[in-house]
Amino acid sequence: MPIDAKQPYDDSNIFARILRGELPSKTVLETDHSLAFHDINPLAPIHILVIPKGAYVSWDDFSARASDAEIADFTRAVGDVARQVGADAQGYRLLSNVGKRGGQEVPHLHVHIFGGQPLGPMLAR
C-alpha cells in the first residue's frame, strides 16, 4: 500500500529493522552511510536495493536534510553496486518511488537497481 512520503519517519519500517540487524539481508555493499542488499522478491535477474543508513523517508527528505557526506556516499554506492553486480555491462534501470502516486511502499528512501534482462518501457499504460 503506497505511503505518504510527507509523514515523519517510521522507525518500525522493514529497512530500519534491517539496518538494526533485526531482519536478515544478503548484503552487496556496506559503507559508512549506505547499505545495498538483494531484494527478497526480485523482479529482474539483478534487483538490488540501496538505502541510506540515516532516517530519511524519501528523496525530498534526503536532499533537504542529509549531510554532503551522506549524499556523496549514497550516490557513489548506487554506482559502485551497479558495477559490482555487472549491471553496467548491458545497461540497467534505477528506480525510486516517492509518495502515494509514485507507488512508494516503504517509508525509507531506497533505490532499486534492475538489470540482467531487457526492462521494457519506463511506464506501463
Helix content: 25-40%
As a percent range, the share of strand residues is 15-25%
CATH superfamily: HIT-like
**Backbone structural class:** alpha+beta
Q: State the low-pLDDT regions, or none.
A: none
Can you tell me the number of structural domains? 1
CATH-derived architecture:
2-Layer Sandwich
CATH top level class name: Alpha Beta
Radius of gyration (CA) equals: 14 Å
| Pattern of helices and strands | HEEEHHEHE
The total of helices stands at 4
Strand arrangement, largest sheet?
Answer: 1-2-3-5-4
* Count of beta strands: 5
Motif (Histidine triad motif): 108-112
GO molecular function: catalytic activity
Active site: 110
Pfam family, one: HIT
What would you note in describing this structure?
It holds the Pfam family HIT. A motif (Histidine triad motif) lies at residues 108-112. InterPro entries: Histidine_triad_CS (IPR019808), Histidine_triad_HIT (IPR001310), HIT-like (IPR011146), HIT-like_sf (IPR036265). Residues 14-124 form the HIT domain. By secondary structure, this protein is an alpha+beta fold. The chain has a single domain (14-115), classed as HIT family, subunit A (2-Layer Sandwich), CATH 3.30.428.10. It is built from 4 helices and 5 strands. The protein has helices spanning 14-19, 59-65, 68-84, 99-102; strands at residues 27-30, 34-38, 46-52, 92-95, 111-115. The protein has a 5-stranded antiparallel β-sheet with strand order 1-2-3-5-4, covered by helices on one side.
